[in-house]
Structure to design on (783 residues):
């Protein structure tokens, strides 16, 4: 039970909060309710404070990160946080100063100032120089409502903050409301098909809050000057405050606490062909043969569900023959294979029965309890482990929220269950993390010769440290559906997770006719253009046919973008290295790079693909033009034509069906390889270095063997490139590192892009300057 001061505080909360809507200071004739006793003192890690019987700890984790933990009644019960790295990694500590007077206790680091109010008991966060960032509300910020859920006594925990009048909010995972800036919205964080809960809220002011719980949570900013985070169940208010101010720095801090993203296999950055569903490996082999015969680039084929005799067991139905041999034939054609594997199990399966006999399934569900290490062991040994041994290259972990058998009405199903880790009300959102980390850990214990690649429909904190890509779920084949995926993916990127994709063309078909309908072919082409510039490039859908030749009217456009993706492979794979080595983000909303430009705060339909390419998806039917905002830059170049455009303005860009508007920022170096049909083909082929004048530029070209984890042992190479715009000199620096099979000598061709020298015009290759690079520094004068 709460102590008397806390019961009074909670009872008075509605009165005090209603007063705060009128003004933050006392109004004439009003009185402030009696406040509980408040005290603070320096602790080993920061500040320990008491508000009545509440104990509040503010712990310095890094110069720009503090951890806030507040518990009612001095509770000593701790929750488990498996998504966090160990304390030495996630909260190593940093120097700080402590000061106190009659009004406040202040903690100061090299980057932050945190002030605890000794009259109101709330926290304020400021830069070290004193610029305000955000503060907890001054009227009873933290409350704990006693609840009994699933047989346990717990609390509904809430913290209230007071943002300023202008800032914008992002992150929180992936949602289908079409919003990019969440200011004024309420978002539910509960795992579901198409809805992914990631409790990381990022502000345009340069800070972020990571709400450190897996409980079903509401983030409520309906009243713009109030931001409330409230979770169904918990033992404490628990959050991390992170300061950048740049969003890349925030994401770096987040991944430093929860895990860095590994390199995916190089083939995973190529094209995935999928549909619901191929009914045999014979059918898949026929599709591959046509792709190869027509020289259309492809790297992966996908076997969707119902390949099994019984869901949960690794036995194929009668349409499948010698699976291992068939997979070898695909590998001989340089095509990898991904197979759908579910956490939802048929009660008739031997896997389900084995787990049930040991009480390792989620009670009253048909899902194994991924929070139990014994369940993860059995699941691996009986299902994905058997498939990996057959030669499959990746697992599609569908239904990872998890989902239950029909009817499934859209609620996060674990909220009223019991799990090994604890009360499902407190761990509602944890399943996708535990599920994917279990598969990854067992895979890596089996072999380090093949990098993990998982595709999953849901995610949670820390899951970026698993070799998993999230896709946006079973979305609808409409322009509404397409437009909503763009904003959803950009917020997912700002949640700290770098790998994301969609079902190109949408999953559910709204059209009653055939795929030949011109309206659908146009939509599919526009979605394909967008998908080309997602971190992972993948088509899928509930359609009788879904290969490029099924869309005959737009097939040339599809092939054109597919080939472009592969020509960009040196650029994309180098960005993948930045993701792993620098905590980079490939798919970048404009606010990441132009945070101080308020014009970017509400742009959720444009993004940067890496540092160079501005992508502008066409999201309306029959459109031949679209509005494009070009942020401040010395210049922008039309990717297709090479024409130079002034930055800091909005333009109307041509957008015929075969040409999505793309612009390149001045100072960019884009390495483009020759046309290839799979990601690792022609590794020593010539590379064009396309240089866009108007600013100095840099690019680090990354290379490794394309698979295995040897890159973590230093077996990789980086070629640094620097462009001196004033003097017109490109310096290709000395190669750093080596790996078995590395190309020792490479042919580069430097091209200064200008009008008439865009990619659509062939890049005026003859105008480029070709040179041979042998690993030693070379300076190329392009004047």
């Amino acid at each position: 039970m709460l102590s008397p001061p806390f019961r009074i505080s909670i009872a008075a909360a509605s009165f005090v909060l209603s007063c705060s809507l009128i003004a933050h200071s006392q109004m004439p004739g009003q009185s402030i309710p009696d406040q509980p006793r408040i005290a603070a003192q320096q602790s080993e890690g920061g500040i320990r404070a008491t508000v009545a019987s509440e104990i509040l700890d503010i712990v310095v984790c890094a110069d720009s990160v503090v951890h806030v933990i507040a518990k009612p009644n001095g509770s000593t019960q701790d929750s488990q946080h498996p998504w966090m790295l160990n304390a030495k990694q996630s909260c190593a500590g940093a120097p700080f100063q402590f000061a106190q007077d009659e009004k406040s206790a202040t903690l100061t680091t090299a980057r932050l100032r945190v002030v605890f109010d000794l009259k109101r008991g709330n926290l304020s966060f400021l830069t070290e120089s004193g610029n305000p960032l955000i503060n907890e509300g001054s009227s009873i910020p933290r409350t704990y409502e006693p609840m009994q859920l699933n047989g346990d006594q717990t609390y509904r925990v809430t913290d209230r903050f007071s943002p300023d009048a202008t800032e914008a909010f992002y992150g929180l995972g992936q949602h289908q409301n079409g919003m990019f800036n969440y200011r004024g919205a309420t978002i539910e964080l509960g795992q579901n098909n198409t809805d992914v809960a990631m409790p990381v809220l990022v502000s345009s002011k340069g800070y972020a809050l990571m709400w450190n719980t897996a409980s079903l949570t509401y983030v409520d900013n309906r009243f713009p000057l109030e931001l409330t985070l409230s979770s169904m169940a918990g033992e404490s208010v628990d959050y991390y405050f992170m300061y950048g101010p740049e969003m890349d720095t925030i994401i770096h801090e987040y991944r430093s606490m929860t895990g860095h993203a590994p390199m995916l296999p190089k083939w995973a950055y190529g094209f995935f062909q999928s549909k619901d569903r191929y009914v045999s490996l014979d059918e898949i082999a026929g599709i591959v043969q046509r792709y190869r015969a027509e020289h259309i680039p492809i790297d992966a084929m996908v076997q969707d569900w119902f390949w099994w005799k019984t869901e949960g067991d690794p036995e194929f139905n009668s349409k499948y023959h010698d699976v291992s041999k068939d997979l070898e034939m695909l590998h001989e054609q340089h095509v990898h294979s991904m197979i759908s594997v579910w956490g939802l199990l048929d009660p008739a399966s031997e896997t389900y029965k084995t787990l049930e006999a040991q009480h390792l399934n989620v009670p009253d569900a048909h899902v194994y309890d991924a929070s139990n290490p014994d369940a993860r062991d059995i699941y691996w040994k009986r299902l994905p482990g058997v498939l990996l041994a057959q030669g499959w290259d990746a697992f599609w972990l569908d239904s990872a929220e998890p989902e239950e058998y029909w009817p499934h009405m859209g609620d996060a199903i674990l909220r009223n269950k019991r799990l090994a880790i604890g009360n499902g009300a407190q761990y509602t959102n944890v399943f996708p993390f535990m599920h994917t980390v279990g598969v990854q850990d067992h895979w890596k214990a089996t072999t380090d010769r093949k990098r993990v690649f998982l595709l999953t429909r849901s995610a949670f904190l820390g899951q970026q440290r698993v070799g998993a890509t999230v896709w946006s779920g079973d979305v609808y084949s409409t322009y509404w559906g397409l437009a909503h995926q763009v904003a959803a993916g950009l917020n997912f990127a700002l949640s700290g997770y770098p790998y994301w994709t969609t079902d190109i063309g949408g999953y559910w078909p709204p059209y009653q006719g055939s795929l030949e309908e011109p309206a659908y072919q146009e939509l599919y082409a526009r979605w394909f253009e967008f998908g080309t510039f997602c971190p992972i490039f993948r088509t899928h859908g509930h359609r009788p046919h879904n290969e490029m030749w099924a869309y005959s009217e737009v097939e040339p456009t599809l092939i054109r973008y597919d080939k472009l993706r592969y020509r960009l492979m040196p650029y994309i794979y180098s960005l993948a290295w930045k993701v792993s080595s620098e905590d980079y983000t490939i798919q970048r909303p404009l606010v990441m790079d132009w945070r101080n430009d308020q014009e970017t705060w509400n742009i959720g339909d444009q993004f940067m693909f890496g540092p160079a390419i501005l992508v502008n998806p066409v999201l309306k039917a029959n459109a031949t033009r679209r509005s494009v905002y070009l942020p401040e830059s010395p210049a922008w170049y039309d990717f297709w034509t090479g024409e130079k455009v002034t930055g800091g303005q909005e333009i109307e860009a041509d957008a015929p069906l075969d040409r999505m508007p793309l612009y390149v920022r001045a100072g960019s170096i884009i390495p483009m390889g020759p046309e290839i049909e799979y990601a690792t083909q022609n590794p020593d082929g010539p590379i064009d270095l396309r240089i866009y004048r108007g600013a100095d530029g840099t690019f680090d070209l990354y290379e490794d063997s394309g698979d295995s984890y040897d890159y973590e042992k230093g077996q990789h190479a980086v070629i640094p490139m620097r462009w001196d715009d004033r003097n017109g000199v490109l310096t290709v620096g000395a190669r750093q590192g080596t790996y078995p099979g590395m190309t020792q000598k490479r042919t580069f061709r430097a091209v200064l892009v200008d009008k008439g020298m865009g990619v659509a015009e062939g890049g005026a290759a003859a105008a480029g300057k070709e040179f041979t690079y042998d690993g030693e520094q070379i300076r190329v004068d392009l004047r």
